[in-house]
Write a structure and sequence with these properties.
By secondary structure, this protein is of the alpha/beta class. It has helices at about 25-30, 35-45, 60-70, 95-100, 115-120, 135-145, 170-175, 185-190, 205-220, 230-240, 245-260, 300-320, 325-330, 335-345, and strands spanning about 10-15, 15-20, 50-55, 80-85, 100, 110-115, 125, 150, 160, 165-170, 190-195, 225-230, 260-265, 275, 280-285. It contains 14 helices and 15 strands.
């Protein structure tokens, strides 16, 4: 939403009721059918305690999905703890996860709780779990099976109750076949899997996200860049985005910094590359959006997509609050005046019978 690009949907008491909504993945990830499918999967698995494997290339939003699962779960009042397994030295993995006692090793000057203890009653995300050493994988499996851990250097078992989510940019089944990941751990973790398609397969999200990042950067830099030229949008749509959403965000931020009025092709430091279709073949620049009407500009398509998402979020909030505009404003993290103007703009009924 242009007026509130950082809008969130918190879980908080409103009046005498509790309205629970997951973080707005559609706003954060885009309006495509692929994102809609991910939201459906999050809603399916969130309120049980299944372990979830989240697969996707670097920069696709795996942690966003993990946080959405946590916030929509019965553990939402507990801690959400994220650990990047690839950023921890191999010798310290067990200390980070399970904690250590004072004097357990050189430099252990005090007792330390591990991430499992910190996440007790909440959710623990192990990001890039394929980087975890095999020895640590065996100890992780034991904790999952028994619900009890031992700090490094400790002899007393500690009962923990943390829901485990894991994320990986590698195919864990292939890693099992290559003997770089334990099969028994994979089968224990793989109770439910969510796959996030790369951005090149979600082209409906590219323009939406680019506009969202532009809004946020305009606010940060106190600028008023108005949008993208058609040639700039063609460049965004025809690029393969190996770094996915993270790369798109950096590209747009840099372009807004350089632009004065409209982002043009020269502000984008990306090259035009063919985008593979579902069958693995490539489409050239003139075939990027074959289904789009020829007389509809890319800017107009971006505006329509943003408005459609805005209406959906507003209708959902009004439905959850029985048409109460004040409660809907609080739910959407905005003000009453904005809600009132949007309802009038889109002609949305606030009669509870219409929801």
């Amino acid at each position: 939403m242009r007026e509130t690009p950082e809008m969130v949907m918190p879980t908080e008491p409103i009046g005498d009721e509790q309205y629970t909504m997951i973080p707005p993945l559609r706003e954060l990830m885009g309006p495509s059918d692929a994102v809609r499918s991910i939201i459906d999967q999050v809603n399916t698995v969130a309120r049980c305690d299944f372990s979830v494997v989240i697969l996707g290339e670097t920069g696709t939003g795996k942690e966003l999905v993990a946080r959405a699962i946590h916030h929509a779960s019965l553990r939402s009042k507990g801690a959400f703890v994220a650990v990047d397994c690839g950023a921890i030295p191999e010798t310290l993995v067990e200390s980070e996860l399970f904690g250590h006692e004072k004097g357990a090793f050189t430099g252990a000057d005090s007792q330390k709780r591990g991430k499992f203890e910190i996440a007790d009653g909440g959710t623990l995300l192990l990001d890039e779990i394929s980087n975890m050493p095999l020895g640590s994988q065996a100890k992780l499996l034991r904790v999952l099976q028994e619900g009890v851990l031992y700090r490094v250097g400790g002899t007393m078992g500690i009962t923990v109750d943390a829901r485990l989510l894991v994320a990986s940019n590698k195919d864990l089944e292939a890693a099992v076949a290559e003997a770089t990941f334990r099969g028994d751990l994979f089968y224990r973790l793989n109770e439910y899997t969510i796959r996030i398609p790369p951005l090149r397969e979600r082209r409906d999200d590219i323009v939406y996200l680019a506009n969202r990042f532009m809004d946020i950067t305009n606010m940060e830099l106190k600028k008023s860049v108005r949008g993208f030229s058609d040639t700039a949008l063609q460049r965004l749509l025809s690029f393969s985005w190996p770094g996915n959403v993270r790369q798109l965000r950096s590209t747009v931020r840099r372009a807004v910094l350089l632009a004065d009025d409209v982002v043009t092709e020269r502000h984008l430091e990306v090259e035009t590359t063919p985008v593979p279709d579902a069958k693995g073949s490539s489409k050239d620049d003139n075939e990027v959006r074959p289904s789009a009407p020829k007389k509809t500009s890319l800017n107009e398509m971006a505006r329509q997509a943003a408005e459609a998402t805005e209406q959906k979020l507003l209708r959902d909030a009004l439905r959850r609050t029985g048409g109460n505009k004040s409660k809907a404003a609080r739910l959407l993290g905005t003000d009453y005046k904005t809600i009132h103007l949007k309802i009038k703009k889109y002609g949305i009924s606030v009669d509870p019978e219409d929801f």
